[in-house]
Amino acid sequence: INELDNTSDADFLIVPGGSCEDAGNHSHLHSLIQRINERNGLLAAICNGVLILASAGVLKNKSCTHTAYLKYAPLPEFKELLDIAAKLFSGSFYVDEDVVVSDNIITAKPYASVKFADVVLKALSL
Fold it and tell me: What is the rounded distance in angstroms from the CA atom of residue 121 to the CA atom of residue 14?
């Protein structure tokens, strides 16, 4: 991840899902996300990747979607993660849709990968 310092000219970033324990606390990744956001570049995230955007602070005053709710993660072992996620998403506006576009940010639930890809490609004019 230290190689992220060499991507200062990036116009967009797509953050995949999966385990995000280490990446959510990585200052280089947060800096890259914040730089792209400051330039109004495209930031897109799906599944747990949305937590990375939230931990970088770019979802404040933005609409977004995610699955950090009991109805999506009902098992007791997820309670601690959901408490942390609630703090990270504080200041953002949750929309219970598969894919949400809010200015330069696209967020998606994990099961919406095809729709997410379509929206990202259109945003990139591809």
Answer: 11
- 38-53 b/e with 16+ CB inside 10 Å = b? eeebbbbbbbbbbbbb
pTM for the model stands at 0.88
Q: Which regions of the chain does DSSP assign to beta strands (E)?
A: 12-15, 42-46, 63-64, 93-94, 99-102, 105-108
Confidence at residue 5, expressed as pLDDT on a 0 to 100 scale: 58
Q: CA 2, CA 122: separation in Å to the nearest integer?
A: 30
104-125 tens-digit pLDDT = 999 999 999 999 999 999 999 9
Q: Side-chain half-sphere of 11: how many Cα atoms within 13 Å?
A: 3
* Backbone φ, ψ for residue 55 (5° rounding): -70, -20
Q: Report in angstroms the alpha-carbon separations of 100 from 24, 33, 48, 66, 105.
A: 21, 18, 15, 9, 8
Kindly report, residue by residue over 63-84, the tens digit of the pLDDT: 999 988 777 777 777 777 788 8
Within 13 A of 117's CA, how many CA atoms are on the CB side?
A: 3
What is the biggest distance separating any 2 CA atoms in the chain, rounded to whole angstroms? Answer: 42
